[in-house]
Amino acid sequence: MENTPIFFADGESPKIIDAFRKAQETFKYFWRELSWEYRRIVPALDVACVKLAFTQEINGNTVVEHMWINDINFDGEKIKGILVNDPDELTNVTNGEYVEIPANQISDWLFVTQDKTYGGFTIQSMRSEMSETERQDHDAAWGLNFGDFDDILVAYEQKEKPENLTEHPMSKNMKESLLEFIKANPNELTAQDEFGYTFLHREAIAGNSTIVEVLLESGADKNAKTHNNKTPLDFAQELKWDHLVPLL
């Protein structure tokens, strides 16, 4: 993920700007969870959305609006999905439109599973300024329980199992079935999609070290490059998946 700061509109409070920063730093956990969600037979997530800064030059001014998208995909550089908000001022994007936005324009992310919310940094920043009654009304409007605004979770059961911050439990659990899959489909190790991404690239972006180890041991090429000249190691370093760097 590029570290270039995005231009945010004047008048954003320091608290909200801090929330943007935390959302960008932890977005990798959102994508890791979603990458597994897309493989589940029975869905586990009730909500999965990302808030992005959309910009447009209007009458000589840069206008910024932060809006949510869903149906998300992520290639290590751009967030892709469907806009689910109506813009207030912007005319260069509309509700229901497919968009591709650089990852440095993330302003928040949120996923919900088993009645717990993860992420939602800007939401919790706003809730911190509300009275208890206002918070209850806010949560009722969303139909979600956002819990303690001072205690934001980023990974499933991270308190009970701190190791989940390093690796998703499904990465470990899927090891044997992955070995069988590769044995039956050896071409998957070298196959590249239309943008040059391999299986190894995608797993490096999602931070799945057990899967990455299996792929490397099975003969995946760690020097394979996307059409943008990125290796799996490049993505691991940019996303700060430190546990993958020695493997790659």
UniProtKB/TrEMBL annotation:
Coiled coil: none
Key word Lipoprotein present: no
Domain DUF2314: 15-146
SUPFAM superfamilies: Ankyrin repeat
ANK repeat residue intervals: 195-227
InterPro entries: Ankyrin_rpt (IPR002110), Ankyrin_rpt-contain_sf (IPR036770), DUF2314 (IPR018756)
Keywords: ANK repeat
Keyword field contains Ribosomal protein: no
Protein name, as recorded: DUF2314 domain-containing protein
